[in-house]
Amino acid sequence: MKKGLLIILSGPSGVGKGTVREYIFSHCNLPFVYSVSMTTRKPRINEVDGVDYYFVSDEEFQKNIDNNNFIEHASFVGHSYGTPKDKVESLREEGKHVFLEIEVNGATQVLNNYKEAGVISFFLMPPSLQTLEKRIKGRKTESKEVIEQRLEKGRREMQLAGMYDYVIINDRVEKASKLIIDIILEKIKEAEEAN
Ligand code: 5GP
């Protein structure tokens, strides 16, 4: 059986990665699975352990780093986030296509370490910096200081878009999501035909 694809969706905080991912997963029956990340951040209202994230302590997260259990991990405005290696690898070995939605530092690690065929990367770009600022501020879940940190980081990250296979402008969630879905479907078809 051929190894499944590794699909990476990244982009600056506030660009709408989560919304696009939800649209993709709820609007079509695509043959791929979402990789649930581990984080030291506390759950927000409505977030469920094991569904949105695996919520863990700093100690547990560190243990996973020490045991080399992450494909990538990154610190993001005071919290740690990581992609569990064993789950992603076993799913791909079973021929399943795995979808990661991660921030730019972690995505850069994956792009540098997985230079194999079968990795497809998407950078989600805001239509403008003003839009990004408005979206981050509109969230109302973070302090003013955290919002400023996220914005500054976003400005720097947008300069890395050229590393990705595809840059998708998120001016409308539906349009951006459909573009991504079409590309993924085409890549899955190509991978199957090459089999
Ligand atoms: P939030 O705290 O808003 O859920 O997520 C903050 C950022 O962390 C988002 O940009 C999200 O895409 C990213 N993120 C979520 N899971 C992971 C992960 O496993 N690795 C990395 N590097 N970033 C992640």
Structure in words:
By secondary structure, the chain is of the alpha/beta class. 43% of the residues lie in helices and 22% in strands. α1 crosses α7 and α5 packs antiparallel against α6. It starts with 5 loop residues before the first strand and ends with a helix. The mean pLDDT is 92. It binds guanosine-5'-monophosphate. Guanosine-5'-monophosphate binds next to β5, β6 and α4.
Topology:
Blueprint: E1 6-10, H1 17-27, E2 32-34, E3 37-39, E4 53-55, H2 58-66, E5 70-76, E6 79-84, H3 85-93, E7 97-101, H4 104-113, E8 119-125, H5 129-138, H6 144-157, E9 166-169, H7 173-193
Parallel strand pairs: 1-7, 1-8, 2-7, 3-4, 8-9
Antiparallel strand pairs: 3-6, 5-6
Helix pairs in contact: 1-7, 5-6
The protein binds guanosine-5'-monophosphate (5GP).
Residues 13, 17, 37, 41, 72, 74, 76, 81-83, 101-103, 105-106 line the site of guanosine-5'-monophosphate.
What is the N-to-C succession of helices and strands? Answer: EHEEEHEEHEHEHHEH
Largest β sheet strand count, sense and barrel closure:
5 strands, parallel
Radius of gyration: 16 Å
The best one-word shape is: globular
β-strand amount: 15-25%
Compute the number of strand runs: 9
Number of helices, counting only DSSP H or I runs of 4 residues or more: 7
